[in-house]
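User: Second chain of the day. Same drill as before.
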Amino acid sequence: MLVNLREILWLAQNHNFAVGAFNTPNLECINAVLAAAEKLNVPVILSHAQLHEAVAPLAQIGPVMVEAAKRAKVPVCVHLDHCETLDYMQQALDIGFTGVMYDGSTLPYAENLTNTKKAVAMAKNYNCGVEAELGALASREGGEAVGSGPVYTDPEEAVVFCAETGIDALAPSFGTAHGIYKAKPVLDLDRVKVIAERTSLPLVMHGGSGVSPEDYRKGIANGLRKINYYSYMSRAGVQAVKALLGAEDVTFFHDLALAAQNAMEVDVEKALWVFTGL
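Assistant: Same format as last time:
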């Protein structure tokens, strides 16, 4: 069942959980995420990040994601993650994406504000929800380090930004990072609570893979309603392929793909248990 970002975040808000948002750059990822969500009967978000364009062109994977969402037995939002250009966003809107995240976090505040307003205006014509980012994580999407380190979101600035842009969800910076953590992240979850209370918007955790169950639950209690998760799910698929290759002489690639899919499904299911409080 295809739903938009506002609808799926409304479900999360009203039931006090966070919806999992998983990058799905191939069919195996899509199948793994939807199988886990349907098994647990919980809503989920299929995401496509702009940086995956070289791996999975939006024009090819996007329609597959939308069709899979329509056929799903649970509510599914198809979301564009970390979109840095409005032209790319327009492509996703035309394909039928029901959520978009404009990422102007590396731009000066005024430029981020202006472009986010444009993104909101564009999305309104498609009944599509909009997420935006304010502040900067310690690493970019894909795990690339940011030389200056994290820039934590100022709650006062967040109030103004959300009010002026009209966004549906905000991704603040509070200590997470994209990619695989080399040490336990130290999260400012009190900042999350303040921003959620001051803006009255659903908040999003980027760099959600690898966070402890305790921190997930505290963050959700403080206002997180969407958690982005991909790196550890993807790593589970890689580990399954390595194990299969080490155990037997594999001839067919589809056997490797299925092994990865099954392992990712297990990892997604574990994450969804935590995010939804099952």
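The longest helix spans residues 253-276.

User: Great, on to the next one.
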